[in-house]
């Protein structure tokens, strides 16, 4: 029992470190890739289970981008928004807040919280797209998965 508890603590610490170091919300699969070398035999199910517990205890927060797998970030971060690149599916943090959403609410409504996701093309993809467009090929052909692997058939 003690050993199992120890292993769980180590898993939790490693997963938390990956999330803290990422600087942007990370998906479970990406977390697994980054901790696998340190935690032999760790599976995706354990990563999901650990993340669920961490979220329940308020240490991490779920970041949901429609159509994407769930991502997680530290819950105690300062309020910020997210940017989702539609080409590489990477999610970035956008610091600050445009705020004043209460102004758009109908009378009698009370705002409690908000989330803003901006969609577009990140700097890296924008630069690549320009190069490809001048070469005459379509940027859409290169659709990457969230972990950055190319999905296009060879
Ligand atoms: Zn991108
Ligand atoms: Zn905001």
Radius of gyration, taken over Cα atoms and rounded to an integer in Å: 19 Å
Give the low-confidence spans: 137-154
Strand order of the largest sheet: 4-3-5
Largest sheet: 3 strands, mixed
Secondary-structure content class: alpha+beta
Instruction: Name every ligand kind in the structure.
Output: zinc ion
Written description of the protein model:
The protein has helices at residues 2-22, 28-35, 44-56, 123-134, and strands spanning 60-63, 71-74, 80-85, 91-95, 117-120. It has 4 helices and 5 strands, in the order αααβββββα. α1 crosses α2 and α1 (2-22) packs across α3 (44-56). The chain is of the alpha+beta class. The protein has 2 domains: 1-76, Arc Repressor Mutant, subunit A, CATH 1.10.10.10; 78-154. The strands form 2 sheets. The protein has a 3-stranded mixed β-sheet with strand order 4-3-5, with no helix packed on it. It starts with a helix and ends in a 20-residue tail after the last helix. The chain is flat, with a radius of gyration of 19 Å. It is 35% helix and 15% strand. Bound molecules: zinc ion (2 copies). One zinc ion (ZN) binds at residues 79, 81, 97, 99, 114, 116.
Features:
three-stranded mixed β-sheet, 154 residues, 35% helix, binds zinc ion, alpha+beta, Arc Repressor Mutant, subunit A
Layout of helices and strands, plus pairs?
Elements: H1 2-22, H2 28-35, H3 44-56, E1 60-63, E2 71-74, E3 80-85, E4 91-95, E5 117-120, H4 123-134
Parallel strand pairs: 3-5
Antiparallel strand pairs: 1-2, 3-4
Bound molecules: zinc ion (ZN) (2 copies).
């Amino acid at each position: 029992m003690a050993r199992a508890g120890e292993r769980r603590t180590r898993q939790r610490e490693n997963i938390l470190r990956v999330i803290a170091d990422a600087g942007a919300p990370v998906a479970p699969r990406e977390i697994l890739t980054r901790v696998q070398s340190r935690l032999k035999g760790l599976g995706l199910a354990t990563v999901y289970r650990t993340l669920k517990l961490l979220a329940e205890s308020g240490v991490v927060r779920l970041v949901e981008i429609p159509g994407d797998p769930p991502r997680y970030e530290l819950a105690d971060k300062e309020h910020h928004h997210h940017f989702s690149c539609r080409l590489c599916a990477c999610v970035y943090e956008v610091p600050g807040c445009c705020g004043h959403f209460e102004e758009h609410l109908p009378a009698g409504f009370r705002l409690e919280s908000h989330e803003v996701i901006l969609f577009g093309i990140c700097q890296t993809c924008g630069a690549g797209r320009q190069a490809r467009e001048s070469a005459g090929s379509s940027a859409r052909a290169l659709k990457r998965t969230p972990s950055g692997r190319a999905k296009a058939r060879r």
